[in-house]
Amino acid sequence: MSHPYRPRPVSGFPELLPEVRRVEQAYLDKIRRTFERHGFASIETPSVEELDVLLAKGETDKEIYVLERLQADEATAKDARLGLHYDLTVPFARYVAQHFNALTFPFKRYQMQRVWRGERPQEGRFREFQQCDVDVIGVDNLALSFDADIPAVAMEAIASLGVGDVRLHVSNRKILDGYLAALGIEDRVAAIRWLDKRDKIGDRAVIDGLVASGAATQAAQRAVALAAIPVGDAAWADKARALLPAPNAIFDTGVEELSTVLDTLAALGVANVAADLSLARGFDYYTGSVYEGRFIDYPGFGSVVAGGRYDDLAGSFINKKLPGVGISLGFSRLFAKLHAEGRLPIGASTPTQVLVALPSDERRMLALATAKQLRDRNLNVETYHAPQKLARQLTYAEKKGIPYVWFPPFEDGQKHEVKDMAAKTQNEADPATWVPS
Predict the structure, then answer these.
(1) Residue ranges of the domains in the chain?
(2) CA 201 → CA 195, 207, 288, distances in Å?
């Protein structure tokens, strides 16, 4: 006799019990409402994109899951052409290019979907996870005011969840780009990637990495000195200018833009915002403002909000300049942390408000009709499946957290009754007029 396959979890692909999933859905609804309050329209792109799209920006090929048929024949067993998207920004750029003539610009969209990355699973990192993105994209130019609006919306969405304080770290890639140019560092993309790892590997390892990628030792040390300016230092601009070895217009523009964004965020009433010149963001496509939001109470946990300005991401797909700015809420990371900390408001495992008891087979049609009558009045109702002992039906309701049990008349001439499971009271009720207390 063959043994049945014993299912086991697939590492990095989480799944939730119903009571936890209900909290997840409620949180996603709050985020969605926040995005829509600010005028962002919902879109959804396919889970699958052509590899040419996914590889258009950034070195992400090691993280992409490729899609191919298990039983591919020789005619189709060529190099894989499709892959699962690893973020929502690149598919969004492709979407804008493809639907350019049908959209109104600036185009404000939000997108709440799962993404896939072939990473090593660990705390806060998954192979399949939910992202909630909000972006705005323009034609030829996009006002700097959006660089403050976008993170303000994200911080409002986080606040709506009541999950604890998140500090928004803000910088500008032009500061780093201009500073590295002034230091004579030519491979600035590689340098930025090293600096982006500073909080994980430390200053010494970053300096060694910069030197290994071609930077002079003194230039590498001065690059780290800029990143070492304390987060939130009110004099960050003066300290950064003091480190600059030679005038640089790109650096100056970055300082001005960051100052404006910080001032605008303050005017918008966004709390817990700090200039952070160590912030680089690893993706190549960022060209201006960059953001990361981290739990104040869990500083080593990693970012739960991240994004920035990209001047020409959609230019890979269309011969137009389409600058944009966007931010992503790493929802799965945030949610998993709250779950692990026991901070989720977990309640009933079902949305059912009323369980209609089934007294007997003879009364099944009455029970079904009663359930429909209550359901037609916008209540969430289920009917018990079998005419079992009432104690068993009540136990079922109690285990699922159903707050009310409805008893149709057991005999002709009797009244409907409803039991409040929490108060342990039972009273007559009319299915045409009754409302939960």
Answers:
(1) 18-185+227-340, 354-428
(2) 10, 10, 25
Cβ contacts of 437 within 8 Å, gap of 6 or more:
420
Q: Strand, coil or helix: what is 45?
A: coil
User: What predicted TM-score, i.e. pTM, was given to this entire model?
Assistant: 0.89
CATH topology of domain 354-428: Rossmann fold (3.40.50)
Half-sphere exposure of 144 (CA within 13 A, CB side): 16
In CATH, what number does 18-185+227-340 get?
3.30.930.10
Which residues partner with 428 through β-bridges? 417
DSSP state of 120: P
- Tokens, residue 233: 């230092």
Q: Please count the CA atoms within 13 angstroms of the CA of 266 that sit on its side-chain side.
A: 8
The enclosing H or E element of 327 equals strand 324-329
Average pLDDT of each block of 10 consecutive residues along the chain (437 residues)? 81 94 97 98 97 77 84 63 92 95 98 93 87 97 97 96 91 94 89 85 92 91 93 94 95 98 97 92 83 87 90 86 95 92 94 97 97 98 97 98 96 94 97 95
Question: Structure tokens of 117?
Answer: 């990355």
Give one word for 215, left, alpha or beta, with left for phi > 0 and alpha for psi -120 to 50. Answer: beta
